[in-house]
Design goal:
The chain is α/β, with parallel strands linked by helices and 382 residues long. The strands form four sheets. Strands 1, 2, 3, 4, 5, 6 and 15 form a seven-stranded mixed sheet that branches. A five-stranded parallel sheet has the order 7-14-8-9-10. A three-stranded antiparallel sheet has the order 11-12-13, with no helix packed on it. The radius of gyration is 22 Å and the shape is globular. The protein contains ten helices and 17 strands. The termini are far apart. The structure holds flavin-adenine dinucleotide.
Length: 382
C-alpha cells in the first residue's frame, strides 16, 4: 500500500469536511471562524444534495422563524446570522427551498466546496489521512464526516422485508389503490400516512412503540412534533386512519388471482393487515458512514461510539457531525441539536493546531454552542 509522500504532507489540509448538507456546511462555517485554518469541503453531488431529492410533498417538520438577534437563531439555520425563514419567507420549508438556503449560505460565506466529488476511501498513515476522492487523493490532518443518513435507509429485520418500500423512496409517496400499510409510526410514518389520507386513501399504521400516544417525554427525538400531532388529529378525524400498537413480524406476498397481488403483514398481536401494494417501511436510517464505517467503534445499540468531542474512539482526528451523533441517551438527530456541536468540533481542532478560536465566542453568545453534554435534554414543565 502506497505511503504518504513528503509532498502530500506539505500540502495537507488541516481539515477535510465530507458532505455539503447542513452538518458539513455548519462545521465549515465554524472552522471559518478559527484563525488560519486550511480546510475544504467535498460533496459527491451539489450543495444540499439530499434535500434536493426529498419527495416534493415533504416539508421540514421543525419550523423556521426569524428569531435571530434575541439569542435564539432560526431552528434550521446553520450559522447564527442566517435564517431560512428570512430567505424563503416561509416557516415549513420544502427540501428544494432548504437546499436553496444552503446554497445561499455557501455562496455568502464563500465556502470552499468541491462538488461532484465523492469520497471513496480513507486511510490513516503516520498522523495524516489520505482521502481517496473521484478527483484524486486529498491529504489532511483531520476529517469531519458529515455524510448524512439519507443514503443509508434501514429496513426492519423481519422475514419478507424485501417486499417493503422504504419511506425515503419516491414510490412510497405515489398515489395507490386500496389501503396503504405503513410500518413505523414516528415522524416519517405519520407524515406518509397524512399524505395518503389527504389523497383519499385508507391507511393502517403499525408500531409497537405507539409514538402517537400521549406521554410525558417532551424530546422531539422521541415524541411526535407539534406540527405532526396537528396533522395527525386531522387525519384521524377522516375516519380513514387506523393506528395499531403492535410490531410487524413478517411480510408475505401472494397472487390471489392472476395479475393481482396481496401483501400480508403479520403483527405481534397475531392480527394480519393486508394491502394490494407493497407496505411502506418508515423505519429510519443507519449512520451512513460509507468508507469510514470501519474507523469507528460501535455502541451497544450499533451507533458509532464517540468521545466527548464527537471524535472516533479508535481513529484520532476523525470527527462525526450530523444526525448519527449520540451521547448516552441523547440523540442529536435534528439540525437544532447537532448544530450545537459545530463550534465545539472547530474549537477542539483549532486548539489542537494552536490557532486562536476567539471567533467562536459569537456562536456561544448566540446559543449555538453546547460543550457540556450534561446540559442537554428536553424536560418541559408544561
Ligand atoms: C425524511 C426526513 C425528514 C427530516 N426532517 C427534519 C426536520 O424537519 N428538521 C430537522 O432538523 N431534521 C430533519 N431530518 C433529519 C435530517 O437527517 C437532518 O436534519 C439533515 O438532513 C442531516 O444533515 P446532514 O448534513 O447530516 O446530511 P445530508 O443533508 O444528507 O448531507 C450529507 C451530504 O453528504 C454527501 N455525501 C454523503 N456521502 C458522501 C461521500 N462519500 N462523499 C462525498 N459526499 C458525500 C451527500 O451527498 C449529502 O449532500 C429529517 C431527516 C429525514 C430523513
Amino acid at each position: 500500500m502506497k505511503t504518504i509522500t513528503d509532498r502530500e504532507r506539505r500540502q495537507a489540509l488541516d481539515v477535510l469536511v465530507v458532505g455539503a448538507g447542513p452538518a458539513g456546511l455548519g462545521c465549515a462555517l465554524a472552522l471559518d471562524a478559527v484563525d488560519d485554518l486550511r480546510f475544504g469541503i467535498v460533496e459527491r453531488g451539489t450543495v444540499g444534495e439530499t434535500f434536493r431529492h426529498w419527495p416534493t410533498e415533504q416539508r421540514l417538520l421543525t419550523p423556521s422563524f426569524t428569531s435571530n438577534g434575541y439569542g435564539s437563531p432560526d431552528l434550521n439555520s446553520v450559522h447564527p446570522d442566517t435564517s431560512p425563514a428570512y430567505s424563503f419567507e416561509t416557516d415549513y420549508l420544502s427540501g428544494v427551498q432548504y437546499a436553496g438556503y444552503l446554497r445561499g449560505v455557501a455562496a455568502a460565506f464563500d465556502l470552499p466546496v468541491l462538488e461532484n466529488t465523492a469520497v471513496r476511501s480513507v486511510r490513516r498513515d503516520g498522523g495524516l489521512f489520505l482521502v481517496g476522492t473521484d478527483r484524486g487523493p486529498v491529504p489532511c490532518r483531520n476529517i469531519i464526516w458529515a455524510g448524512g443518513e439519507h443514503h443509508d435507509p434501514r429496513l426492519p429485520e423481519l422475514p419478507g422485508a424485501q417486499h417493503l418500500q422504504h419511506s425515503a423512496s419516491s414510490a412510497a409517496w405515489q398515489r395507490r389503490e386500496g389501503p396503504v400499510v405503513v410500518i413505523g409510526g414516528y415522524e416519517s410514518g405519520i407524515d406518509l400516512a397524512c399524505h395518503h389520507i389527504a389523497d383519499g386513501a385508507e391507511v393502517i399504521v403499525v408500531d409497537g412503540d405507539e409514538p402517537w400516544s400521549e406521554e410525558s417525554v417532551a424530546d422531539p427525538s422521541v415524541r411526535l412534533s407539534p406540527r405532526t400531532l396537528v396533522r395527525l388529529r386531522g387525519a384521524r378525524a377522516t375516519g380513514r386512519l387506523t393506528l395499531i400498537g403492535s410490531s410487524a413480524r413478517s411480510v408475505t406476498r401472494h397472487a390471489p388471482t392472476p395479475g393481482t397481488e396481496e401483501y400480508v403483514v403479520l403483527l405481534g398481536n397475531g392480527r394480519r393487515v393486508r394491502s394490494a401494494t407493497p407496505p411502506v417501511a418508515a423505519t429510519g436510517f443507519g449512520p451512513g458512514l460509507g468508507p469510514v464505517t470501519g474507523l469507528f467503534d460501535r455502541r451497544p445499540d450499533g451507533w458509532p461510539l464517540l468521545d466527548e468531542d464527537d471524535c472516533s474512539t479508535t481513529t484520532p482526528g476523525l470527527y462525526l457531525s450530523g444526525p448519527a451523533v449520540r451521547h448516552d441517551a441523547r440523540r442529536f438527530c435534528f439540525i437544532y441539536k447537532f448544530r450545537q456541536r459545530f463550534a465545539h468540533i472547530a474549537r477542539v481542532i483549532g486548539e489542537s493546531l494552536g490557532q486562536d478560536c476567539g471567533g467562536l465566542d459569537h456562536w456561544r453568545d448566540e446559543g449555538m454552542l453546547i460543550d457540556d453534554l450534561d446540559c442537554c435534554g428536553t424536560v418541559c414543565a408544561c
